[in-house]
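Hi support team,

I'm opening this ticket because the web form for multi-chain structure prediction keeps timing out on my end. I have pasted the exact lines I submitted so you can reproduce it. The total is 400 residues across two entries, so I didn't expect it to be a heavy job. Is there a limit I'm missing, or should I split the entries? Thanks in advance, R.K.
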Amino acid sequence: MELMGKIMMTAFVAVFVENTIFSRALGTSTLVVIARSRKNLFGFGLSVTYITALISVLTYFVDTLFISSNRYVYMPLVYVTILGFVYIITLLCMWKFTPKLFARIRKYIHISAFNCAVLGSMFLISKYCETLSDYFIHGLGIGLGFVFAVYLTAIVYDKIYSEKAPYAFRGYPLMLIYIGILSMAFWGLSGHTLNY
Amino acid sequence: MANDNSCKGIIKNALLNKNPILVSGMVIAPVVVMANNFWDAVTLIAAFSLITFFTLLISSFVPKNIVYTIRIILYTLIGALVYVPSVIMLKYLMPDEVETLGIFFPLFITSSFIISRSESIFFMETKGKMLLDIIFCIIGYDAAVLLFAAVREILAFGTIGGTIIGMPVQLSAFQNPFGGFILLGLMAALFRSILLFVKRLRQK
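Hello R.K., no limit was hit. The queue was backed up. Here is the completed structure from your submission:
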């Protein structure tokens, strides 16, 4: 029961309180692109969550193997290699076993693997997690949190780009302000208070 | 009116019409989180410019006949390789400032700018034009980040480059990521208005 509670709490924190987009802005540029198409949202979300969950496990093993004082200099190269490896293996497996799904998501699978949210998740879990389960739950939570943020943005996409919005604010500027307001709400959720 | 692929058109697009941060929304994360003051912004743009320029320069030699699936891995691997000397050099020149960048320095490797611009070589007529495009995009990004950080520092801390300028009110919320998002959104809207105003003025 205690373990279940811990898992639920860690996932809740990763999705809501320390959401990659709303608390650290990781992957915002990807969000701006992906929010355009609600049609691909499910497939994209699945890809990102799968990749962050899988690489979190691999990151754990790499972190325990490579202990160096120069981690900040060399680890990005190691992480990018892992990311490339996962990307290729995933594509090959999909192409072989689920060709229809492969054809559907091949247009945006590269965006779901090579973005700041995914690489950032590797650095974050490496910094804050200790056990394999911690790594995995955080990885999963970061992926789900990212998808949640993309969904929250995608549902207002039409209004943000509507003709009714003033030209100067239409689209990108309004999207940033909207993300900022959501970010402020999640910031409050993490227990911050303003001084009066 | 300059053609989009003429040198003048490339420079105009890179600096103004398709400014990476104020118009196209690329590499937003480090700006929103880290560009809290002018000097942090200087460190940020030094890191961004170094990694982006050399990664794109080397990536331009990746042949087009390699499938995109592999090309994108090569681009990020090149970025990760360029990152190593860049971080060593910047750590030597500004050790404390680089520490403050934290995870945002290595994240430039997979920035949307590198991912999208690596392919620009295939759409440009010559390598010279591609280089011009990259250089001016980086200048456009750097200038926008410096401006953003200066405005943010004035609003949040009442200083500019650390010098107190005597603002009556300090809106400290602007130093948070949500403040960064909102301020960047407002600046993007203002920038668009200015571009529109200039365009209309020219038409008259």
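A quick check on our side: The CA atoms of residues 158 and 167 of chain B lie 5 Å apart. Let us know if the file doesn't open in your viewer.
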